[in-house]
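Suppose you are handed only these lines of text.
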Amino acid sequence: MRKRGLDPDQVRKHLHEARERDLSYENGDIMSSMCTTPHPLAEEAHRLFLETYLGDPGLFPGTSQLEDKAVEKLANLLNLEGGDGYITTGGTESNIQALHIARNLSNSDEPSAVVPESAHFSFDKAADMLQIDLKKAELDDDYRADPSAIENLVDGDTAAIVGVAGTTETGQIDPIRELGEIAEENDAYLHVDAAFGGFVLPFLTGAPRFDFSIDAVDSVTLDPHKMGLSTIPSGGLIVRDPDALNAIRTDTPYLTSEDQYTLTGTRTGAGAASTYAALETLGRNGYRENAEICMERTKQLARRVENSRNLELTVEPVTNLVSIGLDDPGKAAEKLDEKGGKVSVSRLPEALRVVLMPHVHQETVERFVEELEEVA
Ligand SMILES: Cc1ncc(COP(=O)(O)O)c(C=O)c1O
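From them, the structure of the protein bound to pyridoxal-5'-phosphate can be written out as follows.
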């Protein structure tokens, strides 16, 4: 560390130089991310609550109340009256905490969790931290969880079954109702990871049910910092039964609270405030419009891919993600990268993965298809 601090303008210059090296959502450079430019009011709320933290809620009762309201609204979006939860740092923390609850509620000495092979790698982290066995079930031909493959892995030690609503790699939706039947028959906890789909599916006509309207669902992850247009870090973990949180509660001596069930201690209030702001200002109509626009561009890209000789859709998109099959997707991604557009390569299936977030405009899709055809 320097002995004497630098002139603020010089530090500022360093900050701007670093920022200029970043890719930008608005230039259409980023097509691989599930994050996007936040809503301006969410950004304003984030700034206003920058120094607040919820690890010691008695110091920030106003912020704490906003978090409660945000949680209530998220639960309501997921068709749950009552319930509880909190604003996390994102899908990873929510998934870790869901398995944490399930493990602590389990009677098994060697608890395990059964997830579809498409589950996000946050479940690997969770299993490692929680010392539970993670069993991965094969998918069906459309890259969704296959209920019979899940059932085959379930046994007396199964603490949790996980379904995904909007998978990371193909955007697919698992058959949550069927997974619920398996969970109920085997007395297992059912967690739904809707980190991506949670702000899309409720607004699409005819989308399959994935939320608390299915009785067996115990908890849901949904991320305001993805399609919820809130700022990073804003995740959501919602549980049906508020008592479930007691399974992960810790006493907090010396704080204004008696206990907490969050993973982190000092945690920002900015995520809660910006989530509240986005939910209130957009309302259901605003989110519906956002989801519909993203789906329109998704279909635009999907049709272009279908009509192209060297490209194929690995699966018909059901959320705003297009998975494109072609020869050597890794090489194609590298070449596209050189042209300035960042896409990623999925593992299952091995394909190009394009996420049509709100910042990916119609012209960006057109430009991307032309570049992709050249590369392919
Ligand atoms: C389905 C799903 N779950 C969880 C996560 C993890 O979310 P985060 O990166 O916010 O922790 C992701 C990230 O893309 C995801 O796609």
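What can we learn from it? The first helix runs from residue 8 to 21. The chain has a mean pLDDT of 97.
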